[in-house]
Structures are given as C-alpha cells and as structure tokens.
Design a protein that fits this description.
Layout (H helix, E strand, L loop, with lengths): L5 E6 L5 H15 L5 E5 H8 L5 H11 L6 H15 L5 E5 L5 H13 L6 E6 L2 H15 L6 H23 L5 E6 L4 H12 L1
Parallel strand pairs: 1-3, 1-4, 2-3, 4-5
C-alpha cells in the first residue's frame, strides 16, 4: 500500500467489529510490514475509563450500566485526545466504535481532513438484530459484559437506530469515503474475505 490507509468499522454492537479489526491488522502487517499501525476502539477505552474513581468516571459508569452511550463531549474528547497524542502521520489507522452520531461524524470528518487522510474506508458490518442478540447472549455467558444484558441491549438498539444509522448515512453519502457494506452474518473468515475483496 503506497499511502497509509484508514479503516473505519461500523455496525451494531456484537457485529464483530473488534474481531475483524484484528484480522485486518494481521493481514495488512503481512502485506506491508514496514508501515506502523494504530488502532483505536472507543468501547475498550470507555471500559477502561469507567474503572476510575473520579466524578466523571462514576457518571460514565452509571450511564453504561443503564445501557446509555457516553455523551458526545466525552466521546469526542476521548478519541480527539488519542489522535493528538498518538498520530504521527505515517501509520495505517483502524477505527472501531465511532463516530456514533451524525454530529460526531462531522467532527471526525474534520479530523480526517486536518490529518489529510485520503479516501478512508468505511466498513459497515450489517446483520439482523436477531443475529446480534444471539451473539450478545453468547458473549454475556462467556465474558459477563454488563452492557450485554437483554434490557441494556434493547436500549442500545433503540439508540443505534436513532443516532448511529444517521452517522452511517453521513459517510455513505460522502464522496471522500470508500463506503463498503459487508455481510456481517457470515462466518468470521467469510466476513474477513468480504472485507479483503472490498478494499482490494
């Protein structure tokens, strides 16, 4: 790959974004071993953040327990500060879990322009909510994630439809992005193969 690439993974909770980020990183590392990589998952960062004992950490922990997503200002502060502190300009970027709402997508778009990231790939993993619920039940049994309980998942679905779908449409309608709709209901290997076809 002649220039550093940007890969933005979007989709319902439980659609397999984190797994596919890891697989794509491994693939690209083999193809382009000399280019550094930077991966950022706001979900992981938030789960680390709520372990703190400050007032904001407590409020964030309460929100996550209720199935609410973090407020926009906190999400933007988190990924914005990570960009400022970590980007050097020569790395492949892997983004998992954001932007989550249309206004955040606009701010993210301004960051991409500022950092001169050309034609980022938006990899939208789509699958039915029934498939997602089945995956989240299995993840709850295996990992005990508090945001995977049934009541919380339903609230996250409602939030997703109201806020995240418009963010997805924002990128779908922007010529500056390579929008790729991927069948997330396939096997892990099948989804990975679809992604490789989309970015080839």
């Amino acid at each position: 790959m002649p220039k550093p690439q940007t890969f933005i993974f979007m989709g319902l909770p439980g659609s397999g974004k984190g797994t596919q980020v890891t697989l794509l990183q491994e693939y690209i590392k083999k193809q382009d071993p000399d280019t550094p990589q930077y991966a950022l998952s706001t979900g992981e960062k938030f789960r680390e953040f709520i372990k703190g004992d400050g007032y904001t950490h407590q409020k964030a922990r309460e929100a996550l327990t209720k199935g609410e997503l973090m407020p926009e200002f906190l999400a933007v502060w988190m990924w914005g500060s990570m960009f400022v502190e970590n980007l050097k300009g020569d790395e492949h970027m892997f983004i998992d879990g954001f932007p989550r709402i249309a206004t955040e997508a606009e701010m993210f778009h301004s960051a991409m322009k500022f950092y001169e990231r050309e034609k980022p790939y938006v990899l939208y993993l789509h699958l039915t909510k029934e498939e997602v619920c089945d995956r989240l039940r299995k993840r709850l049994e295996k990992e005990g994630r508090t945001d995977d309980v049934e009541e919380t998942v339903e609230e996250r679905f409602r939030w997703y439809d109201k806020h995240v779908v418009p963010a997805i449409d924002f990128f779908r309608d922007k010529d500056e992005y390579e929008f790729c709709s991927i069948n997330g209901g396939l096997t892990i290997e099948g989804v990975h193969d679809e992604i490789l076809k989309a970015i080839s």
